[in-house]
């Protein structure tokens, strides 16, 4: 089988009820900036990014009805380190957001929460290890980062699927190249 050309997920679009509130939320929490905004078919639209190589990573369009449930399962934002994730955990707590769930997946540490309109958001940092997914354990992000790393390593080493992240990535790269 011939693989299609590489396609990477680069942005997500959301229909929102209160565009100004949502723009402020993603700017304040994640440091995203507005790259463009305007009108599209009678609705307001705003593009936001945190990456200078991506015009937008998030696009939001006004007009979502009040009674409409979000069709998005979750939006995920990767941060560079466990300490970065702990920063965001404190920021999310300070904002008083709903349904905050710190989670340890073995291959990553995450916090899940709801944005002001009830969309599920995940912020995560990769760990240096891999274990089969799904893998979900509670996580105390108030613990020192070195303790979290040590307890996570002990947990994943007990799993039969454990391997270093580099090994898993190399295997996946070979599969993608086939």
Automatic annotation (TrEMBL):
Record SUPFAM superfamilies: Glyoxalase/Bleomycin resistance protein/Dihydroxybiphenyl dioxygenase
List the molecular function annotations (GO) for this entry.
catechol 2,3-dioxygenase activity
UniProt-listed Enzyme Commission number(s): 1.13.11.2
What keywords would UniProt list here?
Answer: Oxidoreductase
What top-level class of enzyme does the UniProt entry assign? Answer: oxidoreductase
Domain (VOC) ranges: 8-126
Q: Name one Pfam family in it.
A: Glyoxalase
> What PANTHER family has UniProt attached to this entry?
GLYOXALASE_BLEOMYCIN RESISTANCE PROTEIN_DIOXYGENASE, LYASE, PUTATIVE-RELATED-RELATED
In Swiss-Prot or TrEMBL terms, this protein is called Catechol 2,3-dioxygenase
């Amino acid at each position: 089988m011939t693989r299609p050309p590489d396609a990477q997920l680069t942005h997500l679009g959301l229909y929102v009820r209160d565009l100004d509130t949502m723009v402020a939320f993603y700017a304040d929490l994640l440091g995203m900036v507005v790259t463009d905004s305007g009108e599209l078919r009678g609705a307001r639209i705003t593009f936001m990014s945190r990456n200078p190589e991506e015009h937008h990573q998030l696009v939001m369009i006004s007009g979502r009805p009040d009674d409409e449930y979000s069709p998005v399962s979750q939006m995920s934002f990767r941060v560079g380190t466990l300490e970065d994730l702990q920063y965001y955990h404190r920021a999310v707590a300070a904002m008083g957001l709903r349904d905050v769930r710190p989670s340890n997946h073995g291959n990553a540490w995450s916090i899940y929460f709801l944005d002001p309109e009830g969309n599920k958001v995940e912020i995560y940092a990769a760990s240096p290890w891999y274990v089969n997914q799904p893998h979900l354990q509670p996580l105390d992000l108030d613990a020192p980062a070195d303790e979290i790393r040590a307890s996570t390593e002990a947990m994943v080493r007990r799993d039969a699927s454990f391997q270093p992240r580099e090994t898993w990535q190399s295997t996946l790269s070979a599969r993608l190249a086939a």
